[in-house]
Amino acid sequence: MKIELTPIGTIHTPFKTVENMPIQPSGAKHVAGTIEIFPEYAEGLCDLEGFSHIYVIFHLHRSAGHKLKVIPFLDTVERGIFATRSPARPNPVGLSVAEIVSVKENIIEIRGVDMLDGSPVIDIKPYVPDFDECSEIRKGWFEGKAGNAPKTLSDGRFK
Amino acid sequence: MKIELTPIGTIHTPFKTVENMPIQPSGAKHVAGTIEIFPEYAEGLCDLEGFSHIYVIFHLHRSAGHKLKVIPFLDTVERGIFATRSPARPNPVGLSVAEIVSVKENIIEIRGVDMLDGSPVIDIKPYVPDFDECSEIRKGWFEGKAGNAPKTLSDGRFK
Lengths: 159, 159
Prior knowledge:
Order of helices and strands of chain A: EEEEEEEEEH
Distance between the termini of chain A: 27 Å
Number of helices of chain A: 1
Strand content of chain A: 25-35%
Structural class of chain A: mainly beta
Number of strands of chain A: 9
Shape of chain A: globular
CATH architecture of chain A: Beta Barrel
Number of domains of chain A: 1
Oligomer: homodimer
Helix content of chain A: under 10%
Strand order of the largest sheet of chain A: 2-3-8-7-4-9
Radius of gyration of chain A: 16 Å
CATH class of chain A: Mainly Beta
CATH topology of chain A: Elongation Factor Tu (Ef-tu), domain 3
């Protein structure tokens, strides 16, 4: 069985290649970009400007096949792909939280862009932390390493 | 252009129909379920047990077509679909944060289940709040309503 999705828009960012990109939104807080939603879906953006942040679900369109174990950017040993945010996933789907700067017609200006230019948009959801509120967070192998994400850039390992 | 994805597993939950389900993980904190990852992807679950929570990206497989404006469960007026978490999205993709109870071979036991039984799994990502840390959250039309999510159940409006 296959799941067939249709892009609803395109993400425009300063990052034309995978190398030297921020690896997480926390490393891209001030990087600006735009999400162009195709005009036929623009009506669905109503009421979005009241939110400060959105989840962007997008296609990792340059991902070249998957691996079940990878050495992630923040580590030196192999980890299971589902315990990482690496793009070499069985389904190349990315998830980022971005800050909304403005919503005008079919264009969402955002900040906190860790996405490749031209990435196809799958979905936009309002970010409402109450819904996902978690206590007692454990961060697995990221523990003590997640703080390095803002200063770590990607390289060509997942090309 | 289409994006073709292949389910990597199936979610097992107590919810056989859309009616009377929790509408968000915050309303389902103690509801247990399991994510069965197909054996060929099980190796990718290594290292996941060190995390307390995961993002589950899944197919809203019972969604019957999309609408650009909907009256969400927590409101009485129409809102743009991308400013809601309603399932009637152009791409029927759901996103939940679930608590990991255990990871054994290809089975993830979870708590915080607001998903329909049988939902196909698209991706699992570790939940690392540092990456998505946001200050100055504004919650748009959810403001003052998001707290009702734990006690609100779904109905048949998106069937």
